[in-house]
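It would be a great kindness if you could assist me with a short task in structural biology. The matter concerns a single protein, recorded as an amino acid sequence and a row of backbone structure tokens. The record follows directly beneath this note:
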Amino acid sequence: NGVSCKKAGATTKVGTTSYKCAKNLLVTNAKLTWLSLDCVSSTSTYLKAKANLPKIKIAMDSTVAQLDADIVKQAAQVEKANKVIPEYQAKIDTITAQLVILKADTANLIKNKKTIDNYTSAVRNYEAAIKAYTTVGKENTRSQKARELALAQYTNSKAEISSSLDLAKLICTKGL
């Protein structure tokens, strides 16, 4: 690596390593030099990743903005759920107590059947509502984790680009 050459694109092989006559894209004002194919490849990989980083940033910003909006909506729903669930549970308890009384009145079971069915249905509906409100908290937690992952993905992309630059510099070291 680094020995000057005259014809861009020319290739040669020294031992088991192949070289190409090209400008080292990691060097400012580079002249034509022999570069190992590994150097050319790692430099290309680095430059493509570096060029792609702004697109990753835009996608991450968009994703985070959408998740932030979702998190705000979900937080409001969680707050509502924290108020409504105890109310619904209290109604279930009241209706269940009335059901026990109605079912215990065996002499009037047929007469009370419609009321018992309505109360039973009401309990099921309140339980379904509680279950639905409970999932809101889980959705909020998932959205917050997804936001953290989106931010981490961008950070990891920057770290990978930095690592690929370090690797390219190492592989392209003059004399290797």
The chain has a mean pLDDT of 94. The helical segments are 37-104, 109-171.
